[in-house]
Structures are given as C-alpha cells and as structure tokens.
C-alpha cells in the first residue's frame, strides 16, 4: 500500500485518466474529489462490500429455488 501525505488542493494522479484532489480536511474527515472517466464505477468500500454481500445472498436464494424446483419435478413410482 502506498501512503501519501497531502494538503488541501494537492492532487494525486493515478494512471493517465484519474486524478484525486484533497478538497478539505476537518478533524478526522477528509473530502476527496475524483476526476475519472465517466464510465468508470467509483464506490465507497462499504457500498462495494454491501453489493457483494447482496449478490452472494441472491445467488444462494436462486440455488435454493432451483433445488426446490428439482425436488418438485421428481416423480416417484407408485407401488
């Protein structure tokens, strides 16, 4: 991990297309501006983690529903 110290209005360049600007610092809150290509998805980590969790839950639910449907389609011979 690269750790940098920056002051307000100082910038960090990532590749050719992404630039971070320190907008303000107030106590332990740092506001960061991000200039990036319009199609690039930028998410806070906690939002990303929540989306991942929801996707995993949706996959599990779909697997359960598929299993239930398979069980419903099983035909047992009558003796």
TrEMBL record:
SUPFAM superfamilies from the UniProt entry: CsrA-like
Asked whether the keyword Cytoplasm is assigned, the reply is yes
What Pfam families is this protein classified in? CsrA
Which molecular function GO terms apply here?
Answer: mRNA 5'-UTR binding
Q: Which Gene3D superfamilies match?
A: Translational regulator CsrA
Q: Carries keyword Cytoplasm?
A: yes
Question: What keywords are annotated for this sequence in UniProt?
Answer: Bacterial flagellum biogenesis, Cytoplasm, Repressor, RNA-binding, Translation regulation
One GO location term (cellular component): cytosol
Q: Which GO terms describe its biological process?
A: bacterial-type flagellum organization; mRNA catabolic process; negative regulation of translational initiation; regulation of bacterial-type flagellum assembly; regulation of carbohydrate metabolic process
> Where can this protein be found?
Cytoplasm
Record's function text: A translational regulator that binds mRNA to regulate translation initiation and/or mRNA stability. Usually binds in the 5'-UTR at or near the Shine-Dalgarno sequence preventing ribosome-binding, thus repressing translation. Its main target seems to be the major flagellin gene, while its function is anatagonized by FliW.
Please give the family membership noted in the entry: Belongs to the CsrA/RsmA family.
Task: Indicate the quaternary assembly.
Answer: Homodimer; the beta-strands of each monomer intercalate to form a hydrophobic core, while the alpha-helices form wings that extend away from the core.
Official protein name in the record: Translational regulator CsrA
Q: What is the source species?
A: Candidatus Desulfosporosinus infrequens
Gene coding for it? csrA
């Amino acid at each position: 991990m690269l750790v940098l110290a920056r002051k307000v209005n100082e910038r960090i360049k990532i590749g050719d297309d992404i630039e971070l600007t320190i907008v303000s610092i107030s106590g332990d809150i740092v506001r960061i501006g991000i200039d990036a290509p319009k199609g690039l998805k930028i998410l806070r980590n906690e939002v990303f983690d929540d989306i991942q969790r929801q996707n995993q839950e949706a996959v599990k639910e779909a697997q359960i529903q598929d299993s239930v449907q398979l069980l419903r389609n099983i035909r047992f011979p009558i003796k």
